[in-house]
Amino acid sequence: MKDVGRSDPFKPSKKVASNHAVDQATLACRAIMEQEALAREKKTARLRQLRLERDAAEAELGERPAAAGRPRTKKPSSKTDARR
Q1: What's the first-to-final CA gap in the chain, in angstroms?
Q2: 69, part of any domain
Q3: Where is this region: Disordered (predicted)?
Q4: Phi and psi at residue 70, in whole multiples of 5°?
């Protein structure tokens, strides 16, 4: 009656080699994701600082930058082209 086939819930199970490989892959993945997150935060902070400096310089000059590119012109609609 002692060995009924149930395992003790408090006894840690033995690690299998395949579980160890999964653990290593998980750890490597987490390390990579953490590095990418830190790099992303660093880039965001740098771009935010540059934007704030640019806005402050524009405020001092009291001017806004002109829209880039050439001015847009109206194109004739396809309905008027079909009538001609």
Answers
A1: 99
A2: no
A3: 1-22, 56-84
A4: -85, 160
Q: How many helices (H) and strands (E) does the chain have?
A: 2, 0
State the Cα–Cα distance between residues 50 and 6, nearest whole angstrom.
63
- Per residue in 25-63, pLDDT tens? 899 999 999 999 999 999 999 999 999 999 999 998 886
Query: What's the rounded Cα separation, in Å, for the pair 20 and 1?
Result: 34
Tally the domains of the chain.
Answer: 1
The pTM score is 0.47
Interatomic CA distance for residues 82 and 78, integer angstroms: 6
Position 22 in a domain: yes
CA distance 40 to 34: 10
Residue 5 lies in a domain: no
Question: What is the rounded CA–CA span in Å between residue 40 and residue 15?
Answer: 36
